[in-house]
Design brief:
about 525 residues, alpha+beta, Spore Coat Polysaccharide Biosynthesis Protein SpsA, Chain A, Aminoglycoside 3'-phosphotransferase, Chain: A, domain 2, 27 strands, about 40% helix, about 20% strand, globular
Length: about 525
Amino acid sequence: MILITSGAYVASEFQVELGRIPPCLLPIANKKLIELQVSQLRSTFENEEIFLTLPESYQLSNAETRILSTLDVNIVFIPDNFKLTESILYVLNTNECLHKNEVLYLLHGDTYFLNFNELVQADILTVSKSFNSYNWEVVRSNSQHALVWSGFFSFSSISYLLKSLTLKKEGFVEAIKFYSESHYLKQLEVQDWFDFGHANTYFSSRANITTQRAFNDLKIQDGVVKKQGKPNIKIEAEALWYINVPRRIRKYIPVLLDFNNKNSDTYYCLEYLPYIPLNELFVHGKNEVLQWNKIFDKIFEYIKASKAVDGEITDFLPINESIVNLYTQKSRDRFIQYLESENISVEKEILYRNKKLPKLKNILEDCIAKVINLKMIYGVMHGDLCFSNMLFDSRGDRIKVLDPRGLNYKNEFSLFGDLKYDFAKLTHSIVGFYDFIISGYYKIEEESNGSIQIIFDIDDRTQAISQNFINDFIIEEITVKEIMPLVVLLFLSMLPLHDDRPDRQKAMFYNALRLYFEYCGKTL
């Protein structure tokens, strides 16, 4: 039996960042920590049943319920006022199938190991080197580091563990030491230990578990992020954007520390910022609506600062040409490419929620026409202003933007463009729920009459956040509803880029139709 202890909420320092959540549900690399924990545990302890404690007052979302069901873990809700010792006693005493002679493996809910291969033995506790001074149980220390308990234990005698926890219920450490007096716990030093239980260790651990994409490579070391990859022109354009942005925007970007475009080794280096990306906050966090309103205010300030000032742009013609091609030709080319690959006719009329939509080609052209009719908002265009490229510093009350595009339609370096595009990219995260698709938090319904629908696993809080954005966010007198045709085009034009994931492609296609159905068009 494996028990993951996550029966209390994260510390108050974390609740400022992520809301009130149990530690096993902390976001790591666009997943929840429990997903990483169970994956590694299953690879070593194939036949062990896994139990997970959660606070009794915590309400699982539909997505979280589905994830935990897929992971096949047994959830035990613990009264909120229980100490760690009491929560373990609660699980052991209420488990009718527990065999007292089996080995119990215990993992703290805020702890992760890269592998458990050496830990398949009875009566052990893991220790690891720590260079921080937190409230860990210290085995020994010197001036450089301490050897501390690192969150994994095993017990050969559950009955004696029950006795230890009962007699020493005021303190987990005392209970474990009492157990070890009778059943000696061997200390195993583990190298690949990640502690997510404190703010500093959370961000340093995150830095070592980074999400890597097909076209680039991120390396984070000693407070520096090094980005390189192919094609070189993409990496170079990003660096040039950081170099050339006006001074008024610099407070919204990380510091560029190094840049090299000689030979074929193109890379740049930024300061590492210990903040959580907005996509992970939106999908995995429990931040209240008021905090999201504050985040939207900060994003608005950034876009406002990005607007071009008088005399900053001397030649509008190439900007206009590139932007119009981006909205028209690129949208047409990409969408047609997808339809041809799926053998779908541009003449097809699709039923969405049993309502017939216009022909696909007419949806495309209707959205293009509506976008072209909106005024240009000239400014420093980020080009990919989605949630995954924005960080929120809750303590400094500011946002930072990352991974600018820096290229125009012709793949030439360009600093300026149309801020409507950034507005649409932002909206495709908040109203388009792009990051919920990436995380798999949706379901598709296809009826026998051909009607389709995409439904997202979102709670009332997330829906309220999205609705507040729709109601209140306005850029240069352009509303969210007016920018929605461009959001539809974004989803249609990105379809060929996800041909490695047909399930994700279909979700994005259906989502484009949902957005058109709900915000843009008319049914037949």
